[in-house]
Amino acid sequence: MPVAAGAAGFLLSLTAIPISYLLNKYSAMDSPMVVFAAGAGVLLGLLLVLYLLVIGRPPTDPLFYAFTVFSFTSVIDLIISLEQDGYINGFMGFYLKEGEPYLRTAYGILICYWDGTVHYALYLMMIAAITLRWSYRSVGLYWLGSIIMSLVTLLLGTIVGKFGTEIRPAFLLNIPYVLIPIWAGKKIYRMPRALPQVMAEQVAAEQRKWLYRRPLDVCFIVYLLFAAAYTLFRGFIALECSFDICDSYAYDQEPYLLDPVMYAKIQVLVNMFYLVPFFGLALYGLIEPGCEWMPDLTVVFAGAIAQAQFSYVGASLHPRTSFTYRVPQEIVPSFLYTNIFFAVGAQLLAFRCVTCSNFFLKGMPRTNEEMEKKVN
After folding, report:
1. What pLDDT score was predicted for residue 223?
2. How many C-beta atoms surround the C-beta of residue 189 within 10 A?
3. How far apart are CA 19 and CA 77, in angstroms?
4. CB 170 within 8 Å of CB 32
5. Residue 118 in contact with residue 50, Cβ under 8 Å?
6. Per the confidence metrics, is the pTM higher than 0.85?
7. What is the DSSP letter of 259?
8. From residue 2, how far is each of 13, 64, 188, 337 by CA, in Å?
9. How far, in Å, CA of 45 to CA of 19, rounded?
10. Closest Cα partner for 286 from 370, 215, 238, 203?
11. Which of 267, 269, 138 lies closest to 193 in space, CA to CA?
12. Nearest 5°: phi and psi at 87?
């Protein structure tokens, strides 16, 4: 029965394809209020159908229902992005016209691609883990960082940018995507951590190593210093710093920062105010042993940075961005190298902290008996 619940969640997500097609054919979908009502009705109806399908033996984790509904909207977002890039036609035109027109921008298309691929895969993984009663703590934390970063940038950029005057009632459908991740994040964080089976002596031996004896961590420190400086520099450009180097960089290297749509500017400002403190904490955690929060923190911010870089870089190069604000062709290679390094470094740091966590542990058992007590 648990496997059947997971299959039901997956199959319900695929109903987004016929539902969006039928709604697009419905002539009444020419009013913002009707589009909002249809969107809310579909989501509530999906919840009801899901409840009826699993009523015999419902999953014990309520996040199963949230992730199933979110997986449905991920398929919707993938349809939107594919339709906007001309790969398909006749599915979500009504919604982009009367629901959320800002999703037609380059940033909106890229954020839909991310939600329809990466988030969709994460939802299916978490649905499967819930039905099989497996832990999904790390996957959940990665999703949490990613979806919060995407929502903060999208919603703020929409409100303060050129689409601020085109906000329709369907904008309110984003409210569950703000509230549910907060609730889900608290539940996921409180899940028990997977404890590595190591003794206190092994942890102490790792934590006694000076930094020069940990060459991989030295590389990560160099990365964090670069990432912090790069993030601050782009943040100053977004704040319209008057230094000549900021102006020349914006016009010659990353003109997307000047796009009046505002998503790029909001993205780098969010990075400056939230990622720079993270980089500082991560530096401290790599130098000072026993920082138990490092694995969780790096996983959350790895998700946030991956989402931010995918959307920012993709939108900088996307044809939907005005040619004036696209990255110049001769700059594209260096632009890609820099931003890929920025994104991949965070993923590798999180992988290091999760898989080789001895340096960050404290209070580990000293004997086999203590180990068994702590595990059980």
Report:
1. 97
2. 14
3. 13
4. yes
5. no
6. yes
7. -
8. 17, 11, 20, 44
9. 12
10. 215
11. 138
12. -80, -30
